[in-house]
Design goal:
Distance between the termini: 39 Å
Radius of gyration: 22 Å
Number of domains: 1
Structural class: mainly alpha
Strand content: under 5%
Number of helices: 14
Order of helices and strands: HHHHHHHHHHHHHH
Largest sheet: none
Shape: globular
Amino acid sequence: MDKKIKVLLKALLFIAILAVLYTILRKIGFRSIYDNILAADKVYILLAVIAVVSANLVWNLKWYFLAREVAKVRFWHLFVVTLAGSFVNTTTPGARVGGEPVKAYYLSKKYGKEKSKFFATALADKAASALSFGILSVLSMLFVIIFMDVEVKIKIILEIILVAMFLVVGAGILLRQKIEFKSEHTSALLNRIYYFSLFKVLRKRFATYSNFEKYTIKKINNIVNVIKKMVRQKRIVARDLGLAFARWIILYLGAYFLFKSFGYDVSFFAVVIVLTLSLFAGSFFIAPGGIGFIETIMISLYISFGIDPGVAATVAVMDRAIFYFLSLIAGGICLAYLSLKYK
């Protein structure tokens, strides 16, 4: 398919999702949402903001322990880098992995260590977060399938997703056991990359293929060695996973406090399921940060739990507003600061 057509289809899908969200909010009533926000208990809103900020601090602490394996990084400088990376991830469509190279780059500038080593710690940090969130996603989907009264087609979709997830994990484990790293295979792949007609920039950067191969293999080995070192230490793995789960729980508390700000009695368990499934679905959406799509899913799921539509919409909007403020505004300021400082 032509690239322009793909871009057009993605743009149309994004517009359609925003139109759906607008229709839902309009049906609920913009005035109702506005009045709810004005009437909310400001103490609980403050607690929600503190919870989200605390979740980001725990996330930073998680990476801090990993990055200390490479250099004596400072916690608050690392927090600035973390927010800058969050800005890049939020504005990156699809898998949202653009922040990790950016974070590694600025740490390398600050501490004079190789970017690949810091990149390895960022990958390990993301892997632990993905694993913890994957477990929460599986449990949430199982709960909906077994206990919730939803349409049959929704249950079938969730069952297909679960089967696909288990097949992918199983295939990965089998491949990991059967495939060994062989340098000749790596060399053949790198050779094709170096001489590929579209990658002229590589041939400008590296005068010979030999230099390119040595450089690339060295960087790959740096990443592999750092990750192996951390994975072999059970204490590091347990701590990383523990902090990953703690971060998600604190994040869920933020949404729970928003409900409390309206005096609304909601199950914390329901909040966990709604947020988990919404963020899981949003991770596959092409729009940056899943904007529009995540909010639509959140409102729909909250209503399916019997929550008042007006309260559901208000909580979803406020919850995402706090997220966008930290990721886009605070994160954007941090990225601009780092860009100016390190030119």
